[in-house]
Amino acid sequence: MMIGFDAPDARLPAYARLRDTFTARIATGEWTPDHPIPSESRLAQEFDVSVGTVRKAVDGLVEEGLLERRQGSGTRVRAPSFSASLFRFFPIRETDGSPVSIPSSQIILRSVTQAPAPAASVLDTEDVIKIVRLRSLSDQPVLFEEIYIPTERFAGFDKLPESSLGPLLYPLYFEHFGVMVKRASDEVSFGKASERVAQRLRIRAGDPLAVIERTAFDIENRPIEWRVASGSATNFRYRSEIN
Amino acid sequence: MMIGFDAPDARLPAYARLRDTFTARIATGEWTPDHPIPSESRLAQEFDVSVGTVRKAVDGLVEEGLLERRQGSGTRVRAPSFSASLFRFFPIRETDGSPVSIPSSQIILRSVTQAPAPAASVLDTEDVIKIVRLRSLSDQPVLFEEIYIPTERFAGFDKLPESSLGPLLYPLYFEHFGVMVKRASDEVSFGKASERVAQRLRIRAGDPLAVIERTAFDIENRPIEWRVASGSATNFRYRSEIN
């Protein structure tokens, strides 16, 4: 496993350490909602513990809502696939339906700053790190993002080496700060591009803009990130499953 | 219970009949995701069957994904609360956050017709019933909807008496046609109002328009409805939970 998160505390009982290990596998995307996790007997073998211990660890994660048991199709990750949600914003499939490349991600700014009013209100603090990011598809900018995370939970994020910043932030939050994003709430609206945003997106000021405001929550349901993502409204598509 | 759906088939085993009865409670909204369903022992008492029979019926619905067991907080409906999704489209809370009235619903047209291409493609048939509906808040039209359902599954929908049409379609689908909407898929995009839509929404042709295309699926994952809902983009808000 390539995670920098602390190894489970050896003083914890075996099932609790196993639970932390499993949580890490979910957070880092090693286990996904797409495939059942290994059977309890295989996990018992892998970690050299009893099946009862594995079951207790899995039970805990089912109770927390991170895993779910489905008769006939095994136990699966129930956590949302946030990487999939990347693909909901713009037509990033070819018109023939074939998948295209993952949007590239360029971090323009990271700075410790004072939160603007909506971020401060959601995060309940003015001490934040601001991240400005541009996402592009085949060199065409499609999404301009301003992201705010509380300094208290993410101290040092602004100093992480560039090389450690992949295209996805949520795995990073977990690996470096032990913060796992459990759910998020999006609000889509339409507006007009400001001069500044228009320049980044290579559209004209006043052009119709699609805006997604997202609040992300950790496992304890605390808001840990607020972001505003903007893109040209012209080709905008936002997909949402209700189930 | 005020449902017109057929009573469970008496030739079925007790647990299967119970399962149908429970499904009806979910479909009609008697059981909601907001509260745990009664305990298995209370249900056994209510239906005069053994706890084992209740458990078997509940197990079946858990497996189908209609119910979910949560340790410590009982068994709950897992089906989406579609009525709540009504409230995601427009600012139908007062600015102070207090809830306002449910949007009123006016059915303008019901007719057996030939499906337009996107509806035919999703529903896999050209034989549809078209429903045109206008939703208003305090007499202001906010959402213009064109809804297509396959005639094969909904024969006679166009002839249902006006008085039986409440503000929500999904409970109606179940009560009269035994079709339960299990999940839906929304796609939000942005466009310009046509003359016809503008007139209904009391905006001007060419004004910015928010468009939601929705496909709804039944319990067997068959598409059973396709709709396009349009509203002025100006005050549009679409909320979505990712979890």
From TrEMBL, chains A, B:
Residues 12-80 form the HTH gntR-type domain. GO terms for molecular function: DNA binding; DNA-binding transcription factor activity. This is GntR family transcriptional regulator. Keywords: DNA-binding, Transcription, Transcription regulation. Pfam families: GntR, UTRA. InterPro entries: Bact_HTH_transcr_reg (IPR050679), Chorismate_lyase_/UTRA_dom_sf (IPR028978), Tscrpt_reg_HTH_GntR (IPR000524), UTRA (IPR011663), WH-like_DNA-bd_sf (IPR036388), WH_DNA-bd_sf (IPR036390). It comes from Roseovarius atlanticus. One of its GO terms (biological process) is negative regulation of DNA-templated transcription. The keyword Manganese does not apply. It comes from the Bacteria.
